[in-house]
Amino acid sequence: MATGAAVLGTCSAVHGQSASVFVYPETSYVETGDTFGLTIEVDSNAVELKGFDIVLSFEGESLDLLCANEGTLMKQGGTTFWHHEADSNAVEMICAILGTGLSVNGPGVLAVISFQASTADRSDLVFEEVNLRNVNKHPIPCESRGGVVWVSGVYVWEEAAIRNLNSLKPELRIFPNPLDVKHIWNTESRAVARWCS
Fold it and tell me: Looking at the structure, do residues 65 and 101 belong to the same domain, yes or no?
């Protein structure tokens, strides 16, 4: 499995018309034992996409990888080759459209990943490597944006609440007893945090 710095290969700090590869949702709140899914997506700046090689790392002590499946985007271009390889804290996903001159345009889902939350903690989802290739097998300039998973535990939710307090809806910023509030809507991440009562 390929490993390296936070972002390697053709996917670097390029701006403007570069493609963007990202984790959706960017922030997830789950409880210990929960099974949940995330998607790896690309935006509309990915044009004539022929294939990709992506390595995503995660905290193996808090998340167990269950599966990594091909998304819907590449299949729109025809028959595809799909391969993934994983260890305890990273997964590499390789996909290519078979056949000369075949490609797809973003936006769309490149991969669907399922995890089980095993330990209460924070897990950062980091793109260790992202390589996109166009129909001529040339690199597609891109940038990547990872995510974070909060696995339930009182100290985890407290930290999450403090970090996101300013982004809460105004009507939810003040309440008599925070432990009576079951859900708080985070307008930045579009995620729902569950409070332990």
Answer: yes
